[in-house]
Structures are given as C-alpha cells and as structure tokens.
Amino acid sequence: MTAVKKRELVDELGALDIGAPARAEADRRSSEIRAAIRLWYPRLAAEKTITETGNKYIATVGAQENCTVITSMTEVANTMGFEQFTEAATVTLKKLKELLPKHYEHLTSTDRTGTRKIQTFPRK
Q: For burial by CB atoms within 10 Å, which of 7, 50, 109, 118 has the most?
C-alpha cells in the first residue's frame, strides 16, 4: 500500500472517530427510548405487533422473538457422550472465574495475541 493511500485511510479513520461520540450518544438514547416503548405493552400477547405514530415517524413494536434454551445440560451430555460433549461445550472465562476462582489462574493462560487498539488524534 502506498504512503498516500495509508495517509488517506488514517484521515478517513480519524474523521469517522470524530463522529463516534455523537453516534454513541444517539445509539444510547435510541436504546433507552426503545426500552421505554417496550414498557408500554407489558400484557401484549407475545405474537402481536402494534404500531405507534409520532408527528414525523411511525414505529412498529413487533412480536417477541423466539428464544430457545437447553432444558437439561445433563441430558445433552449423556446423549452426546463425554468426548463429543467436551468438544462442543463452551465455558466462558467469566463463568470459569465465578465457579472455580481458586483454579482460574492454573486453568487459563494469557498472551498478547489479541487485537491491537488503534486511536486517532487530530494533527496540530
């Protein structure tokens, strides 16, 4: 990649980053309003959709999404068998630390293999 193209990309990233706080605030406020609107219909049947009208926009409050959960991990493990279950099972680091705090450091390792953080600053 040429030096000119690199400079262009750095400048594009900087311009995007300058707008990020405003977008973050808009996203936060949007989530807050959506949560408030959902509270308007605590007894609405799960499969129902309803429409609300503002002065400039229309919002639809859709049906509740399906949510599937495993009802018995023990039964899954017994059905799959230990070897296949351990290949498929995922234990989060948060849950491991919660359940086995005394063994956490022994059972984990940390290396600098993650993503590099890139920050932008206006030139002076």
A: 50
Spatial contact of 120 and 13, defined as CB atoms under 8 Å apart = yes
- Give CA separation, 33 vs 2, 29, 56, 58, in Å: 45, 6, 16, 14
Query: What's at 124, amino acid-wise?
Result: K
Mean per-residue pLDDT, 38-48: 93
- Quickly state the pLDDT bin for 117 (edges 50, 70, 90): confident
For residues 60 and 51, what is the distance between their CA atoms, to the nearest angstrom? 4
**Alpha-carbon span 29 to 58, nearest angstrom:** 17
